[in-house]
Structures are given as C-alpha cells and as structure tokens.
Design goal:
heterodimer; A: Rossmann fold; 12 helices; globular; B: alpha/beta; 9 helices; 24% strand; binds adenosine-5'-triphosphate; binds adenosine-5'-diphosphate; binds iron/sulfur cluster; binds magnesium ion
Chain lengths: 328, 333
C-alpha cells in the first residue's frame, strides 16, 4: 500500500483588505499519496495558487492560513518554525512556478543556481553539486548540459528555463513537487513536451505531484486525481476518469461544455457558456457560490450545501443528487 | 469543399517581408532579423483564416502590417484588388480593425466606454455627436453589453466585458476585415466561449472576414474556415480547415496538431517526436528552417530550401512532397 504524503483538511486562506476579509480559500480537503498526480483546476481567482503557496509555506504574513490538518510525511506543518519550514522547502518539497524568470536570479549562472539549491540542504562540494546539476539537465532533456551550466537565465528560451526549474526542483530528490501553471506561458508543442517530462519523472522517481492549471485538456491527460475549484472551494473531486466521464457538479459540467473539442464539438456550432461572473468573496459568504450562474439554482442553494458521494472517492458539493444520471 | 473560383479576394498579400535591425548588446552592431520571409495570403469575404505558429514566428508582425502599424520591407498588400501604399493607411484602418489579446491594456482606463467605442468614428470624422451616440448604442447591444455600461470605465468591467468593448470599438466603423490577435487567450474558458460565439454570430450577421491568430488549435479548428501554419516568418502550410485538420502534411503542422490535449482521460500526454530547440531568428537554420527539429528530415533539408508546392487551394513547403502532373494533388517525393 502506498503511503499518504500530504494530508490537507479544512484549509482556509483569509486576506484582510480595506473592504473586509477576502475568504480566498474556504475550507478545502485533499490527500495525496506517493506516485500520485493531483490536478487542481479552476478559473482565475478560484484560489489555486493560494492553496499551493499555503501548503509550501510561501504565503505572506498578511495572509491568514487555517487548517484542521496540514500534514506532510506525518509532520504537522502548522507547528513548524519558519526555519524548519525553510529546511523542508527545496529539500523534501519543491515548487515550480508559471514564469521561471521570476524564480531564477538573472545575475547568476544556471550552474551556480542549481548547485546552490543542493548545497543549501546537503553537505556536498561545489564540484559534486555541479555534476548533479549537469546530470539533471540531461535528464530534463537539455542537450549540451555542461555548457548550459555556464549560461545565464536570459540566454535560454522560456521552454528551456522551465526545464531548468524542473531540474532545480529535483536537485534534492524531493517527495512532493507543486507546479503552478508550469506550461501556461509556453507554446503548445513545448507544453506537451514539458508535461510529458513531468509525468515521466513522477513515475520514474515515484514522486507526488500537484499540478495547478486552468486547462482541462492538461488535467485529463496527466491527473490521477482531480480537484475542481470554484470561488475558494473544491466543488468536485475524484479520479480523472470519474470527473471527465461523469462530471457531476453543474460548474464542472458547464466548464466542459465551454471548450471546443476536436472530433466532438462541431466546428462553427455555438459552444456552451456559463453566464455571469464569479461572486465577490469579501465579507460573509454563505450557500453555494455558484448559484448566481447556475441554471439549476433554487431557493435552497443559499443554505447549507451537502457534500455528496457519486461513487468511490468521487464527491461533489451541490443540493442536487441526480446529476450523474442526467449526464448519460 | 471547393471554393468558387471567380470570387475576388478582399485581402491579398504577396511576398511580404519584414526585417528588423536588432542589437544584441549595448555596443554590438545591429543585426538583421527577418520576422517575415515572404508571406503570401488571400482572404475571401467571410473567410476565417486561422494563423497558428510558435511564439515569435511573426504572427503579430503580419497583423501590424495589415493594420498599417508597420510598413513591410518588401511585398504588396491589396484590398479588393487595389494596391495599398504607405499613404493609404487611413483607408486600411477604415476597412481593417483589430481586436488584441489583452483586454486589460488595450483600453484606455481614463476614457468612458462611450468615448472608447466612438473614438474610431471621431478619428475618421464620421457623423456628428448624435449619430455617434446612436452608433455606440447599437454596438453595445450587438456585443451584448447593457446600455448603461456606456457611462462606465474599463476598470469596472470584467475581462470578458472588456473584450466585448474592444469588439464594439473595432466594429463601430463597419470594417470588412477584423484582425483578432489572440482575442481569448487572456480569458477564462467560460468567458472565452462567450466571446467565440459572439465572433461567430457577428461574422454571420455582418458578413465579416477574420484573420484569427491563436495558439489554441482546438479554438482554431472550431472557428476557422482556412488555416495557415507559420514557422520562423514563413507560411509552411495552408489549406481549408477541414482538410488541414483531417490530413496535415507538413511535419510541423503534424506536431502542432499532436500537441492538442483533448480532455480525454484515457489518453496520456503525446510524444511529439520534435526537437525542443526553437531556432534563433537572427541566424536561422540553413535549407528548411525546420530541419533541426524535424523527425522526417532528409539530407537535402539542411542544404536546400523546400519547394513551394500547390495543390488545389492548399499549399505546403516541404521536401517530402512533389506536385502531380496535373497540379491537383501532392505525391510523396
Ligand atoms: N519592433 C521590433 N523590433 C525588433 N524585433 C521585433 C520587433 N517586433 C517583433 N520582432 C521580432 O520579430 C519576430 C516575430 O515577432 P512577432 O511579435 O510577430 O511574433 P508572434 O508570432 O506574434 O509571437 P507571439 O505568439 O509570442 O505573440 C520575433 O523574433 C520578434 O522578436
Ligand atoms: N496577496 C494578495 N492580496 C490580495 N488578494 C489576493 C492576494 N493573493 C491572491 N489574492 C486573491 O485571492 C483570490 C485567489 O487567488 P489565487 O489563489 O491567486 O487564484 P488562482 O491561482 O486560482 O488564479 C483572488 O481573488 C485573488 O485576487
Ligand atoms: S448547490 Fe444549487 S446553485 Fe450550487 S451548483 Fe448545486 S444546484 Fe447549482
Ligand atoms: S523540408 Fe525536410 S526538414 Fe523541412 S519539414 Fe519537410 S522534411 Fe522536415
Ligand atoms: Mg494562479
Ligand atoms: Mg503576437
């Protein structure tokens, strides 16, 4: 049986603003085992990035994180000091961001930065660290790795920089990698290559991977488990097969209807759409946050919304329970 | 699907090149960067020409030339068969209007929606204030914005609403051709689909012709009637959308289509069999520009530029093919 690496229960992120408190993440639960890929999917502002930053402990002090459980490899992350958290980050858990240029220092060579990522956590010589860096650059598909070590970030294309970031995340052989929109800024061909690389590395190294994205195509192809976020909540979660073959929450189903799918949607025919916009999460928020846009909304949607089980681990939050059969 | 032959193109480009001089260091001598290396295209009324290709391949440069924002280094732009010279920018602007990617930066935050939408009428001195107000009312209705939004400012609108304002502004002077440069890539999917539906409706209603630039191949397949694939400043394949998606010929087109991730959980991420290195446009590879990344490359590909092969209304530039004797189909070379 594979072990649970990450266990998050009741995670909240509150942001104090002049107009009131923004409840950006509102009590979400997920678990991740070694060798699993969890995709967190949702539209912009749904709280995906805050969720990943909260797990890896990179949220600013102004933002308030709460959780009933926040465990990584059995350790309670809530009880760790800043120093202990720093020791964990980059070592046992690593993060990859959308724009690699912001996480690379323009003044240092690729080699120096990769080596430092290892030397920060391990007592190894610079030469040993450089050797591992060259090794990993090769592994992430960068040719002529030795000469790349001498280059500066601006001398690399966006796709190459993202490969460098993946190599950097791997320097200490972490158990968990969190990648926040790692391919959103890249060309489609490079995106496919980077995603394939992440999927291969995950399998080879038996990592746990959290991939944050707004792209349902990416999710379907790479996820074992999926969490669909809307307005700070996970409105539906399950295996990729469950989510795509039997989407149960009206929002998930709406999203899937919005995208053109070659071979499925007819060219030129109107696409589905979700009217309206995401509600404000400032101040008191109650009921289903999707109700202003939901075609099935009724009176009761402003009350308490139960978490329903569709099958196995497949759950969704909605007052309706007959949705699965309606899909067929 | 064959096109009627007699139709005149509303827009024709022949052999457009654009060379920029770029400096690579503070003291370095500028070097030529060929952003467009001889682009020829024809758009007929109500065509939606999807233009796809990697970042930096020259899509926006082409769009800027069509909008009269840049002059080509060489080559010709013809509108309704009439040659457009540098002096005819005004004419170009009246007939060709843009919708850009970023609805956040393309609207002036200090101008009201009414001022933004009516600006093209003011610039081109069309009508008086009463007729302009009427035109704005009509446009807001057309793009699905409430009439009261005319007094609002861009900052009060969502991304999708701002893109509707940009569309209203583009259409207010009745252009025939609309250049859409990544019009939905900054938007969430639920908003993207509304804008795509709107663009499709407007084409029907107003008989518009679109040049539709996008990274999203699924969106292009959905909207385009023709597709042109660009690589390093050249159109390497062009065909009717249905033909191109059903039977891509150029190895780069194939890689692009393979990279489309349909939401099918039974499939994994595809292997594109494609070299990762994007070439440096200042010193492009010899022969076929694509050869260092092409899995099908032959010896000739690194020495000789590929032939320009025509078959019916489609074309491809690649050494893998040759034209049949009657010029109607392509055969393996
Ligand atoms: N004003 C300029 N001066 C110098 N080089 C330029 C200029 N504008 C564009 N280029 C170069 O011309 C080439 C084509 O750029 P262009 O903006 O047309 O690409 P694109 O296909 O629109 O890319 P994207 O998908 O990223 O929008 C690039 O190599 C770019 O760096
Ligand atoms: N530092 C911050 N200050 C104020 N608001 C923030 C901050 N970070 C995020 N938010 C807000 O929190 C919400 C969720 O943000 P985020 O997690 O970044 O969304 P996503 O990654 O899903 O697009 C949004 O409404 C966003 O504007
Ligand atoms: S709870 Fe009500 S409003 Fe929310 S998704 Fe279900 S039906 Fe729609
Ligand atoms: S000409 Fe040669 S290198 Fe270029 S695309 Fe065709 S086969 Fe590949
Ligand atoms: Mg984000
Ligand atoms: Mg561009």
């Amino acid at each position: 049986m594979s072990e649970t690496i990450l266990n998050v229960q009741g995670l909240t992120v509150d942001i104090p603003l002049a107009a009131g408190t923004l409840q950006a993440v509102r009590g979400i639960d997920f678990e991740l085992k070694r060798g699993e890929t969890l995709c967190i999917v949702g539209e912009s502002g749904s709280g995906k990035s805050l969720t990943s930053l909260a797990v890896i402990g990179l949220l600013g002090k102004r933002l308030k994180v709460g959780a009933s459980k926040l465990e990584f490899e059995g350790r309670d992350l809530r009880s760790l000091t800043r120093k202990q958290m720093q020791a964990l980050r980059g070592d046992r858990m690593a993060m990859i961001f959308q724009e690699p240029m912001t996480s690379l220092n323009p003044a240092y060579t690729i080699g120096d930065q990769l080596a430092e990522a290892l030397q920060l956590h391990r007592k190894v010589s610079k030469a040993e660290a450089m050797a591992r860096a060259a090794d990993l650059l090769g592994k992430v598909g960068i040719t002529a790795a030795e000469s790349r070590l001498q280059q500066y970030p601006h001398q690399l294309s966006g796709g190459l920089r993202q490969r460098v970031m993946i190599a950097m995340a791997l320097m200490c052989e972490p158990d968990l990698i969190i990648a926040d929109e790692p391919t959103t800024a890249l060309d489609v061909t490079i995106q496919a290559q980077i995603l394939r690389l992440l999927a291969d590395l995950k399998r080879e190294m038996n990592l746990a991977l959290i991939l944050v994205t707004h792209d349902l195509g990416v999710v379907a192809r790479i996820a074992d488990k999926v969490a669909v976020m809307y307005a700070g909540e996970i409105v539906e979660s399950g295996t990729a097969k469950e989510i795509f073959d039997a989407p149960s929450h009206p929002y998930t189903r709406g999203l899937l209807d919005c995208i053109p799918v070659p071979g499925k949607t007819r060219p030129g025919e109107p696409l589905g759409s979700i009217p309206g916009i995401v509600p404000s999460l400032i101040g008191d928020v109650s009921g289903c946050a999707f109700r202003s846009r939901c075609v099935l909304a009724r009176e009761t949607c402003s009350g308490r919304i139960p978490k329903r089980s569709a099958s196995g681990e497949h759950t969704y939050r909605c007052i309706q329970e007959t949705l699965v059969s309606e899909v067929a | 699907m064959s096109e009627p032959k007699a139709r005149e193109p509303v827009l024709e480009l022949t052999g457009i090149t654009k060379t920029y001089q770029v400096k690579q260091g503070m003291f370095a001598k500028p070097k030529p960067l060929q952003a467009l290396g001889g682009v020829s295209l024809r758009l007929h009324k109500k065509d939606v020409l999807g233009l796809v290709g990697e970042s930096g391949c020259g899509k926006s440069t082409l769009a800027k030339i069509l909008l009269g924002l840049e002059n080509p280094t060489s080559g010709e732009v013809l509108v309704d068969g009439k040659l457009i010279g540098p002096a005819d920018r005004q004419l170009l602007a009246r007939r060709i209007q843009p919708i850009f990617q970023d609805p956040y930066s393309s609207l002036n935050p200090r101008k009201s929606i009414e001022e933004i939408v009516s600006l093209p009428l003011v610039v081109h001195k069309i009508g008086d204030s009463v007729s302009r107000q009427k035109a704005v009312t009509k446009m807001l209705d057309l793009v699905g914005l409430p009439a009261r939004s005319r007094r609002g400012y861009p900052g009060q609108l969502s991304g999708g609403q701002r893109q509707r304002v940009a569309i209203a502004r583009a259409l207010v002077i009745n252009p025939e051709i609309v250049i859409c440069d990544e019009p939905t890539s900054a938007l969430d999917v639920s908003i993207q689909s509304q804008i795509l539906n709107l663009l499709a409706d407007l084409r029907e209603e107003l008989g518009l012709t679109y040049l539709f630039i996008s990274h999203n191949l699924a969106v292009v397949e959905h909207l385009a009637t023709r597709v042109a694939v660009m690589y390093l400043g050249r159109i390497v394949e062009e065909a009717l959308a249905g033909d191109l998606f059903a039977g891509p010929r150029h190895p780069y087109t194939k890689a692009l289509l393979d990279s489309v991730l349909t939401p099918d959980p039974s499939l994994s991420v595809p292997d594109l069999h494609l070299g990762a290195q994007y070439p440096n446009p200042i010193s492009p590879p010899s022969g076929c520009h694509f050869h260092p990344r092409c899995a099908a490359a032959r010896d000739i590909c690194s020495t000789t530029p590929p032939p320009h092969l025509q078959s019916g209304t489609s074309h491809v530039d690649c050494h893998l093919f040759r034209e049949s004797a009657d010029g109607r189909s392509l055969l393996p070379a």
